[in-house]
Amino acid sequence: MDKQILLSELNFKAVRSSGAGGQNVNKVSSKVVLTFDLQNSQGLSEEEKVYLKEKIASKLTQEDILILNCDEDRSQLKNKTIVTKRFFEILKKGLEKPKIRKETKVPRAVKEKRLKTKKTISTIKQNRKKPEL
Question: In terms of pTM, does the model score above 0.90?
Fold first, then answer.
């Protein structure tokens, strides 16, 4: 993953933000929409593309384009930095490989404790019965 190449491949678009905000919302295009084409990216290797396609499939469109929006701030520049940071976090999480679980034995003390509790419970149940004469 080459960050410099990925940064040059990102497409930003400024849009008018929705919601409350008065005159500022009507005048200023502060919302930033980031689009990234996963298939045609030069900054990712082929196996990284395949891995990302599986991991972040819910965030991709049918044409394998990632679209992220940010309208948290009134400043277009701050929204741009927030959305690029979010983009790299998504890529980082998508490329993480899960740890392989190593199987371990059940300790002897645990087995003995289980058997001991089974014996005590069975003796308690035996003592509830009426004695045979």
Answer: no
Quick one: angle between helices 76-95 and 46-55, nearest 10? 100
- What range does the domain containing 53 cover? 3-95
Residue 108 lies in a domain: no
Task: Report the C-alpha gap between 11 and 102 in whole angstroms.
Answer: 43
* DSSP 8-state class, residue 42: S
Tens-digit pLDDT profile for residues 70-111: 888 888 899 999 999 999 999 898 888 889 999 999 999 999
- If DSSP codes are grouped into helix, strand and coil, which group holds residue 60? strand
CATH number, position 44: 3.30.160.20
Whether 128 is in a domain gets the answer no
Residue 21 falls within a domain, yes or no?
yes
Q: How far apart are CA 47 and CA 51, in angstroms?
A: 6
